[in-house]
Automatic annotation (TrEMBL), chain A:
UniProt name for this protein: Molybdopterin oxidoreductase membrane subunit
UniProt family annotation: Belongs to the NrfD family.
This protein's record includes keyword Transmembrane: yes
Originating species: Haloferula helveola
Transmembrane feature ranges: 48-72, 92-114, 126-151, 171-192, 234-253, 273-293, 314-335, 355-373, 380-406, 426-446
Lineage: Bacteria, Pseudomonadati, Verrucomicrobiota, Verrucomicrobiia, Verrucomicrobiales
InterPro entries: NrfD-like (IPR005614)
TrEMBL record, chain B:
Organism: Haloferula helveola
This protein's record includes keyword Transmembrane helix: yes
InterPro entries, per database record: ActD
This protein's name: Quinol:cytochrome coxidoreductase
Pfam assignment, any one: ActD
Alphabetic keyword roster: Membrane, Transmembrane, Transmembrane helix
Keyword Transmembrane helix belongs to the record: yes
Transmembrane segments: 57-81, 101-125
Domain of life of the source: Bacteria
Length: 496, 184
């Protein structure tokens, strides 16, 4: 651990050794090992645990989403627990929850790419897949919440049979644009990122149907630098486009609430608060699905403890931001002197839904604070447990915002306790099954780690690697003059 | 039985590392070749300069794609909300001054159109999808997506000569040099 003490005092300008970077790929794995290991996940027979997870998930998806929606459409939205007052109950809670889950995927892909965080390469593929599947789950709820789902095309900006156009001043229409754009761009990003890896699988296949399909989807990729050059630019552009997009999507979702005049919703803090919450919940979901996948497929050298440590730190940061937002809401309600706003918050904390409020507070604000301790970030059981709690807590956050506000507006005659119906619960659990089913199918058929980008992070991938090898003293920097002044009395050397 | 005539596509040479590929690319560039390419399992940063390639022109197209999206978003909202079907909801007016309410769809369509321009512009610039290519007939080219580094020089290049190009590739450190043929 002696770093600063090893100053080179032989020359005129003293040199400080540069801190060594932690390795992103452990145990000096070769390119071929990486290809073998990642392609092995989908080429080998799936482990028993995969089937153990897949079959129940698929069953839950079939009953929950398939059966639940069949019952809903054939009977009517009355089967949901929504009432006159709580006209947005679980469906919108679940919509906002799933959309939020997707955000970490785009964040890891785009924002961490733009900021050159190379540790993202091991987790971005799975996180992007998570985004796609989460947005698919999310889309179900508003589509069926319109009541007559066969009229859902009314949402598209085309005139209906009466020549009536959509209201572009409505946040609900903004939502349609935001979510559909988000899904499309995420899909393009995910697919383009996968093309070189699909080519890797194509080149390993024996001739046959598999080779044909992977061949079609890899578009004839040859890995030529004339292709890579454009490809890298395209990836950069998509990252640059997705970064404002991901921030805008949850902001627009929050406008559904913030542009209303309803106490408890009409707050300007909503856009940043929703975005932070989405990143928070999304990272928790990445950890929830990647820690088991890493264990099942033996990917410990590619998804290292460093990756998990970084994600735990992001959860700690965003969890603290979310906690700040919760308290700031209360403060603004108090300080603004808005009577109804304050009443809405009093009702949240002390009313019949206080159990949900405190559940949210515990899961989202208190639980992540354990990540201040390094030993806790290194304990996978703790990380997994906190991630699960955050997933639950973020669901409750949306429940608290939506239900406690709608359950008691201005007419005392409407102050009935909101209960979701069995149908509500069935459909939500169904979407969890659908999400897991899609994710497990992704693990089975597509490369779950970005092969090309992971190879790129190896030290020998630098075209000047050989030159560095010839000059073994690389990694030292000349000490700036002002730094010498900082420790003018000779620094205490600890030569141990 | 018909006989298939073969035509020479070019030479394929393997290099042992990214560094070797980089140095060899500089030499092929300086030898004046135009129709050639470096193949690697991942993008090697700086290889564009070593090959003498220009920066990708893709952002140029994407700028206009984004502008088209912005204009589409504005006119879609303006024409439908102000001209064709002015909806007054919650006393929000229907005129040009409501344009801030149209910003979210305008923004989203800018991103959407830009994204599509990236996708289709990229495919056009890469000349993909293309399901077959003479290089796929090579006995070793499949390793390019695994762990091998190749330089392919095409016979179309005016500098190409069967012996000269081969000896150049040997000189700059290429191994497993293979003559690639395609069916005419």
């Amino acid at each position: 651990m002696s770093t600063a003490s090893e100053t080179n005092t032989t020359g005129d300008a003293p040199k400080l050794p540069v801190l060594k970077r932690e390795k992103l790929i452990l145990n000096g794995r070769s390119y071929h090992w990486i290809t073998e290991r990642i392609c092995g996940v989908l080429e080998n027979r799936q482990p028993f645990l995969w089937w153990l997870l897949f079959l129940p998930s698929a069953l839950i998806a079939a009953i929950g989403v398939g059966g639940g929606l069949f019952h809903l459409v054939s009977t009517g939205v009355g089967v949901w627990g929504n009432t006159n007052r709580v006209m947005w109950g679980w469906p919108i809670v679940n919509f906002v929850f799933w959309i939020g889950i997707g955000h970490a995927g785009t964040l890891i892909s785009a924002i961490l790419f733009l900021t050159r965080q190379n540790w993202r390469t091991s987790i971005n593929r799975a996180a992007e897949a998570m985004t796609i599947f989460a947005v698919m789950c999310a889309g179900i709820f508003p589509a069926f919440h319109v009541g007559r789902v066969w009229m859902a095309w009314f949402l598209a900006p085309i005139p209906n049979a009466n020549g009536i156009w959509q209201n572009f001043k409505s946040p609900l229409l903004w939502d349609v644009f935001a979510v559909s754009t988000y899904f499309t761009i995420s899909l393009i990003f995910w697919y383009l990122g996968m093309v070189p890896d699909l080519a890797t699988i194509r080149d390993r296949c024996k001739p046959g149907l598999r080779k044909l399909l992977y061949g079609i989807f890899s578009l004839g990729w040859r890995g030529g630098n004339r292709q890579w050059s454009h490809y890298e630019m395209a990836y950069l552009l998509l990252a640059a486009l997705s970064t404002p997009l991901v921030l805008s999507v949850h902001s627009v979702v929050s406008f559904d609430f913030a542009t209303s005049v309803v106490p408890g919703w009409h707050t300007t803090i909503f856009p940043p608060y929703f975005v932070a919450g989405a990143i928070f919940g999304g990272f928790a979901m990445v950890l929830t699905i990647m820690i088991p996948a890493r264990f099942i497929y033996g990917l410990q050298d590619l998804i290292t403890m460093k990756h998990i440590d970084n994600m735990a730190k992001i959860i700690l940061l965003t969890g603290t931001i979310v906690g700040y937002a919760y308290l700031m809401e209360l403060f603004v309600a108090f300080y603004s002197g808005a009577k109804f706003e304050m009443e809405a918050f009093k009702y949240r904390i002390t009313g019949p839904y206080s159990w949900a409020y405190f559940c949210m507070m515990f899961c989202n604000v208190i639980a992540p604070q354990i990540f201040w301790f390094k030993s806790m970030r290194e304990n996978l059981w703790v990380v997994m447990g906190v991630s699960m709690l955050v997933n639950i807590g973020m669901w409750f956050e949306r429940f608290v915002i939506i239900v406690t506000t709608l359950a008691r507006m201005w007419l005392p005659g409407d102050w009935k306790y909101y209960n979701p119906s069995g149908q509500d619960q069935l459909l939500f659990v169904g979407t969890i099954g659908m999400f897991l089913t899609l994710f497990l199918l992704f693990l089975r058929f597509l490369p779950c780690i970005n092969i090309a980008e992971v190879k790129w992070t190896l030290p020998e991938s630098d075209p000047h690697h050989d030159d560095h090898e010839d000059h073994p003293d690389e990694g030292t920097a000349v000490e700036a003059a002002y730094q010498k002044e900082l420790h003018s009395p000779a620094p205490a050397t600890a030569d141990t | 039985m018909s006989t298939t005539r073969k035509r020479v596509y070019g030479y394929l040479a393997e290099f042992k590392s990214a560094s070797a590929l980089y140095k060899a690319a500089e030499k092929v560039r300086d030898a004046g070749f135009r129709k050639w390419d470096c193949h690697s399992p991942y993008p090697i940063h700086g290889l564009d300069g070593a090959m003498g390639l220009k920066r990708s022109i893709l952002p140029f197209f994407v700028f206009f794609g984004g502008c088209t999206g912005l204009a589409t978003g504005f006119f879609l909202a303006y024409i439908t909300q102000v001209r064709i079907y002015p909806t007054v909801v919650q006393a929000k007016p229907a005129n040009i001054f409501t344009v801030p309410a149209f910003f979210p769809p305008m923004f989203e369509l800018t991103i959407l159109f830009s994204g599509f321009t990236v996708l289709f512009g990229l495919l056009a610039l890469m000349k993909l999808p293309r399901l077959n290519h003479p290089l796929f007939a090579s006995r070793q080219f499949h390793r390019t997506t695994d762990d091998a580094f190749f330089i392919a020089i095409e016979a179309r290049d005016p500098k190409f000569s069967p012996d000269g190009t081969r000896s150049l590739l040997e000189e700059i450190g290429g191994s497993n040099i293979e003559l690639i043929e395609e069916e005419d």
